[in-house]
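Researcher: Last one for today. Full complex below.
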Amino acid sequence: MNGLAELITAAKYYREWSDPRLVVAVLNNHDLNQVTWEMRAMQGAPQFEASQSLPDVRYADVAQLFGLYGARVERPEDVEVVWRQALAADRPFVIDFRTDPAVPPIPPHASWDQIKAAARSVLKGDSDRGAVVRQGVKAKIQEFLPGSGGK
Amino acid sequence: MKVSDYVLERLRDWEVEHVFAYPGDGINGLLAAWGRAEDRPRFVQARHEEMAAFAAVGYAKFSGRTGVCAATSGPGAIHLLNGLYDAKLDHVPVVAIVGQTDRSAMGGSYQQEVDLLSLYKDVASEFCEMVTVPAQLPNVLDRAMRIATTRRTVTALIIPADVQELDYEPPAHAFKQVPSSLGVPHYAPVPAEEDLARAAAVLNAGEKVAMLIGQGARGARAEVEQVADLLGAGVAKALLGKDALPDTLPYVTGSIGLLGTRASYEMMRDCDTLLVVGSSFPYTQFLPEFGRARAVQIDLDPSMVGLRYPFEVNLVGDAGEALRRLVPLLEPKEDRTWRKTVEDNAARWWEVMERRAEVSADPVNPEYVVHALDALLPDNAIVAADSGSAANWYARHLRFRGGARGSLSGTLATMGPGRRTRSARSSPTRTARRSRSSATARCR
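Model: Here's the assembly. Have a good evening.
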């Protein structure tokens, strides 16, 4: 949230920059996501909503309030378009990407134990539940698709 | 000329262009001097001292120069600390200048009086001094700059408010006076020849060589490529060294560790020889199993070398200088089977990334967000990632090309630094990536 306040600093100084482009991308998933995943993977603990859930903030609107550009992206087809707009803008640009907290940062060695731990936590009543299992399996399966060498 | 005028003059002499700061009455003397000096060096105003410190750290990380930040006594000095620890743990040079209550109030349980020498004792363990008489300057400022720069760490100067207002008097040619001079000469330490020979013997004996590079290899791109080619090695990158070598080289396996790639993981698992250049990557479990690989390390810092892994040969020296001296001692590996395996795994990883980005999600897949940026990222971009799940996608989906730069809070893994204040001295596109999903120590 300190970063949000520093948008004011960017708004104060960007006119003096030799290149005024500064793109701030917020992966707005309403979750303190990395810690949530660690809890799932390491303790098999369900998500503790009181600590992990984050309020939705209209980051792009805040940027505009400060005199910067901002856009909220809620559809995959808008992602690239808005990146291009932001990279070509004449001032700092905040992109509020509404992203999915259920996309797992599967580690490179992706042990099945960890995936199971995640599943256990979901069964114990994790609020993301079905979405988490679905997303984890979908992402992991990509490594084993034909054409990727198979292993 | 007051002490405060002299401090700013000396900073200008050190070619300091910006001071990232937040004001307060403990540095009012300095602020008044800034006004008299027509804002030279430039006072860059953050919204909070912690962010001023991050701005100084970001400046140091991306410019290769020494960052300077300033804050008032008591609460201001306390707020700087987290940003300063980011510099200390990631080994970049930052000097903090902080105010203090008047000397006459010290020890009086006075308003905003905090024992700053004790508070800064750890973060500025290499050098932390209080200016109590004008003739300590320029020596203590020169030492703060020189020690921060050469040891790539944090130093601090505490200047009580009333001292800032004293008339400046330089040190005299007399007992108990310490004159000083400017500048840090260029130098690059070189390993001893016998150590280079021992290192070459280990590397020549191996058949499957893996390299791990960190931020210490950033200035040695050509040498890293040459050595990797000679040894038929693949190269994995610690997160702070992500911009040390382009990801577009086929034998670069990308990031390593929990945030890393399967290609790096497999290379470390299967290699028989490991060469680490300029990295103190902390997670041993992602390096070869003990006894499986013989290992050589090159590090600039003799106090950091040998850490993290049972290395057989430790070379202390500048990465480029050490590698250049190693090259003539290396025998080119004729068998390229291992290199081919590494390249195939790396190529496969990027295909997997492509597919993971294509996985549908609700509403948007964060992997796709970063993957889409990868294709659009300018060659001269500067990318700052915050800590949290965003760091995963930064590590895995962005391929740096050309002179693109990137960094984050690598060792402290603190939240906050994704929005570092940019400096005015260079121009590439800044891209900061934050995640409302953050704040954890999983950033390697």
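Confidence is low (pLDDT under 50) at residues 144-151 of chain A. DSSP finds seven helices and three strands in chain A.
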